[in-house]
Amino acid sequence: MKVAIVGGGLAGLAAAVGLSGRGWQIELFEARRQLGGRAGSFHDPVSGQWVDHCQHVGMACCTNLVDFCRRTGLAADFRRGSLLHFFGPEGGCYRFAASPWLPAPLHLGPSLLRLGYLPRRDRLSIARALWRLARLAIDDAEDAPTVGDWLRSQKQSDVAMERFWSVVLVSALGEELDRASLAHARKVFVDGFMASRHAYQIDIPQTPLSELYGGTLQTWLAASGVTVHLAAAARRVEGDGSRVSAVVLADETRVSVDAAIVAVPWRRVREIFDQALAARLSELATTEQIESAPITGVHLWFDREITPLPHAVLVGRLSQWLFNRGRRAGDEASPAGHYYQVVISASRNLAGRPRQDVIEQIVSELAEIWPAARGARLLHARMVSEQAAVFSVRPGIDRLRPPQQTAIANLALAGDWTRTGWPSTMEGAVRSGYLAAEAIMRASGQPQRLLVPDLPRGWLARLLLRSSGTGDTR
After folding, report:
1. What confidence tens digit (pLDDT) does each residue in 438-454 have?
2. Which CATH number does the domain housing residue 331 bear?
3. Which of 243, 251, 253 is nearest to 273 (CA)?
4. In this structure, is residue 63 part of a structural domain?
5. Which of 204, 199, 284 is nearest to 237 (CA)?
6. Residue 470 belongs to a domain
7. Is residue 194 located within the same domain as residue 215?
8. Against a cut of 0.90, is the pTM above it?
9. CA 195 to CA 26: how far, in whole Å?
10. How far apart are the first and last CA of the chain?
11. Sign of torsion, CA 134 136 142 143?
């Protein structure tokens, strides 16, 4: 049987990986000339490098992303870090790592209490609020409080809000505290920091995403019998209202199929179906209400190394995360210099600001922290803002997100914007792809489970923490 996967982003790729080796003839159609979708790269002619639109990071709690990378051979291209470096407003460095002798959910407590840029009373207040959040039963209703509203009800100070809660949640959720769902904020802290000792550790790709997907992964797909069509935009998906029968490409090539997985952005998912199919897909009625949130990546090439740290969290500044992408291997004379990327999530406040002004502010902030940056010469800089980088995790967002299985048995949806229980992340994208593949196999009478369980909770975490209340919804 033939299945068409429309969209070569991470969700579509995960669906292909999930179905491979299970008797399906898989054809994947991607409109662009490279795989990866929003998790992609572009060629920078000045540096001569392939540059990711924005730094993508996973965590150890992203069990399905880890599984996807292990299956396809991408795991070797990720580096896991168990030590985070927080730089306070005064420039001091604070090491953040799990205690070797405390079980979850207490394992990160000592690091929290050592964040000296927070007044002692705020550190204690944050710890109390974290405990209440972990024990909280909250439904993601449209009229539920935002995480900002809830934190103010817990008497969190402006300093705590800016220097702790925003630092963690804006990066994790891609949204501001006063716009973000409390239920999803709770999930970040429970699943990412409290349930398991290793959950907080971060996984960072060491090569451009275009090389991962266009090299290692594309080779794996070919060897696994997946046919990838690049620069092959799908114009519409056809059917008779009860079943999908074909995918029609932009050049009017008609590909007959036995099933289809549509893995395109929520902004264009409705327009891809013909009239007969669209009339049946009531689950798409709410997708137009999903809002987006921007992320900005600022790419900087200096004439020298400004810090050897692989990454850093910058507190109380416009810059949120710094990632050290190094110098191109084996090219010490390269004019590209030492490459760093600064990431700014929920970057609406940059709209209308001159790019040079933003770049100068960021370079100034780096010089306030690292003395080497004060004498470094900026060779080249690029600023890339993705206005629809992620969907906005507003209260009630999960009610707008459709399930992967549609009303049409041989049609499934994939994308981090579908109902996964996760915010807009690589983990959410992979989960959606696996769930879409499960739906297609179930409809064909071959039910199999692809989704990987969450990390096991520590013994004390099992006793003290409520379930996060969000997971896959079959």
Report:
1. 999 999 999 999 999 99
2. 3.90.660.10
3. 243
4. no
5. 284
6. no
7. no
8. yes
9. 37
10. 24
11. negative
